[in-house]
Amino acid sequence: MAKAQPFPWFDESWIEGEHDKIVAASAELRDHLKLFHASFEVFHQCLRQHPYAGRPEALVVLRLIARVFNTTGACLKLARAGYFQPSFAMVRDIVEIEFLADLFSRDPKSLSQWISADAKTRKKEFKPVAVRDILDRLDGLTSKKRAEVYSLLSAHASHVDLDGFQIISPGNMTQIGPFPSEKVLTAPFQELAKHLQFACIHLMKVLKPTAPDILAPLKDMNSALVEWRQKYRLQN
Description:
By secondary structure, the protein is mostly helical. The protein has a domain at 13-115 and 179-231. It has helices at residues 13-25, 27-49, 56-81, 84-106, 108-116, 119-125, 128-139, 145-158, 165-168, 182-207, 212-231. The longest helix has 26 residues, at 56-81. It is globular, with a radius of gyration of 19 Å. 31% of the residues are buried.
């Protein structure tokens, strides 16, 4: 009896190859990747070196770091394979953590409240719109820029919306499955670069690492960030 063949996985290797060529030829995309790698190294060392025994707040922050690490990896994997819509959805996940960590860094008590609250209270008081509104009030903002960022990513990636079809229909020609595209690939790189840096900055403010093995890559990331911001205008 012939041995049953395993169910075949999708093979996006040719798309990945095309995107690798695009990244290799693009100074901008390589600059974004440099920032991603610097952030990855900070997260990696935090998860390896930062103490958390008897410190529930530190453990929770490390778990948020692990989520950002994994989500960023998934975002890049999906973009490289040509799955642009779910790649953008990963960026929105990072934006939620970015805003939550920003709140925790400004109001340390809110982290303890978030940890100790029951599910119903946490959902009510720390849902994304509530966190955005608190941050806007702290900044004295009335323009709702955070809501605009969140809504844009929701419409183009996470929610089923007509605007989201643009990602799978370049030039109004709907593509079935993944496909290579320099233009579309650049967009998640740009969005990820903008939001990953702030997620990293806010999480480090909350964690307050002191271990030399963490501070060294953190210094490297800050240098990479200064370099990146000198080249690319940051718009929030």
